[in-house]
Amino acid sequence: MKKRLFVLFISLILGAVPAGSLWAKEEGFIKIGIYVDLSSSTAQWGTDTVKGAKLLLKEVNAAGGIMGRKIAPIIYDCKMSPTEGVKAYTRLVNEDRVPVVYGSLISNIGLAVSPIAEKLKVPVVARCMDERVTTPDFKLEDPENPGRVNPDFFLLQPSSYQQSYMIAGFAIDELHLNTFAMLYTPSNAYSYMMAKGFEYYVKKRGKKMVGAFDFQAGDMDYKAQLTKIKALNPTGLFIPNYVTENANAAKQAKELGIKSTMLGNNTWFEPMDKVAGPAADGAYFPLNISRDDPTLKGFIDKYKKEYNELPRLHSFSGWDDVGFILEAIRKSKSTEPQKIRDAMASTTQYEGVIGTIHIDPKTHRPVGLKMSILKFEGDQIKTVRLKYYPKDM
Amino acid sequence: METSVILQQFFNGISLGGVYALEAVGFGIVFNILKFSNLSHGGVVAITAYFGFFISQYYPNFFVTLILTTFFGGFVGVMIEKLIFRPIRLKGAPLTLFLVNSITAAMLVQQFFAATCGDEYYPYPVFMKKTALNIGNLTVSKTYLLMLVISAVVLLLLSYVLRRTKIGIALRAASTDIWTPSLMGVNIDFVISVAFFIAGVLGGITGYLLGMTYSVDPFIGSMALKGILAAIFGGIGSLGGGVIAGLLFGVVESFFIAEIGSSLTQIVIYSGIFVLLLVRPEGIAGKRFIIKA
What we know:
The complex is a heterodimer of chains A (393) and B (293).
Chain A: H1 2-14, E1 30-36, H2 43-62, E2 71-77, H3 82-94, E3 101-102, H4 107-120, E4 124-126, E5 153-155, H5 160-173, E6 179-184, H6 189-204, E7 208-214, H7 223-232, E8 236-239, H8 243-255, E9 261-264, H9 272-276, E10 284-287, H10 297-307, H11 313-332, H12 337-345, E11 350-351, E12 356-357, E13 359-360, E14 365-366, E15 371-377, E16 380-388
Parallel strand pairs in A: 1-2, 1-3, 3-4, 4-5, 6-7, 6-8, 8-9
Antiparallel strand pairs in A: 10-15, 11-12, 13-14, 15-16
Helix pairs in contact in A: 1-4, 2-11, 3-4, 5-6, 11-12
Chain B: H1 3-34, H2 41-58, H3 62-90, H4 95-117, E1 132-135, E2 138-141, H5 142-164, H6 166-176, H7 180-183, H8 188-213, H9 224-234, H10 239-260, H11 262-279
């Protein structure tokens, strides 16, 4: 009820307008709204995303654009804040009148923007992982029945539960671990959902969760929780948080002499090697890409030439996600939000750099995407499995 | 709970409490003289954490970088006083304005680093190859041990300065009444600068230890909030009370987090502070404590 009132209130204030009427007559550039985190502890992800997106737009515009029109991004910083995310989205829709929006990958922001997008009916594509962003009625204990879908929101990477299954499946079947503990942040929707997905899968596979410990956003010291975990002596320790938190947890776990195999989420990739250093040694984590994948070479070379640095995960995301949006504009031959949205919903196959995306119309999330499993050896990241897909996914 | 786990949690708590104690004293020393809550102390912690990182890139030696960062913290403290607080003090501004300025300064620092350094990560070099010592079943992290030892040394040194030196006596006199010492020839501007210098030094050490132990981000100064709470809990006006409260915070937090979880712990701790201050507004040490600056 409160959520509905909030959406109604925002819509009244911002003067929600019927989609379609405003955008149909727009000419000149095709505008794409982007809200990402450019100044917060997750700013590197936002910056990389924008770099990947701009690289694609540069190529597309050089080739003449779409329907004879060039593409212009309008970018706002949402500072890892759900409130700023909602402000940026409504500003893009109501003031900049963009027909489609590419959103921050922060799940908490996705959760805040999702009901507004459903009301304002301008589609959002994002890389959040929390299932509740596209399927608001998703139940933690019943992930097989996701409930109704938000027609105006699309996510383009394996969800929290799916990524948890990847690492839990690998730990159980390949590393033969059988008892687990975890350390997560309940106020971070991404971390929370990964923890719940991990727990669900471990129990489903008949293995044991010996402890689940949390900490508050902004906390940097987890020695109290880790001391307890050390006493429980699990074979695997799942740590699904953001980079700085993961690095602090890895350092403190090593200092306390914890012997459990550390298992991570996809934020264990760079710059984790720099931030955690050798403390991350021995940890396994899933990732959407591996630079050892020969199919990525073309993109890596192109990116390196443009920015004089190696692409990180979200450099790939920016390219692929904006590519998905452009594909929908091409397919719909329109700049009307609802036509673009319908084209997205019916995308059965989009060939991205990271992989082929098949959108499930029931969830608006991709299905069947494999992930690489990587491992820290010292402070070096090595690929141990290029394409992995767990049992009972 | 096993004895080794209890001992480990106690050590964890004491070492974290040492940092809270440093923050509490840094906050308390300014409060004692100017009678306002100097929330810009968190800003000093953030500035010095970044400074320590950049210095450590050129001098990857623990003691060199610690000393440089400590003195830089003192310098930042003095500059904050001169630029932000002295002008309004000389105009006789009300205390509310001091508080507003201190909040603004803290926010400014946070936003500055968020805008300029937010998209990068700043890990300190690894100063020690072996990071932990094993004493029986107890694993003692060298970093945490260092945090504890440095906090103890600095607080003892400060206690000596406040009790035995002329400037210490002047600081204590100013904390009782800021105007009377000036009638007796004490340069009160200098005394206030020294108070900010000491607070800055403590902020510098805190920033360095936090940056080295964890990693640096624009919001690292927010950890100083717990130190500020410790100062209030310990009894504003009593630096010793702040130290005890800081240590107590660390230990209680460690045990509670392990037993009832992090979310509930914060509720219990903040409710506890609330109740204590209702029952005993002067804090745990209050007027009876010896080291009163």
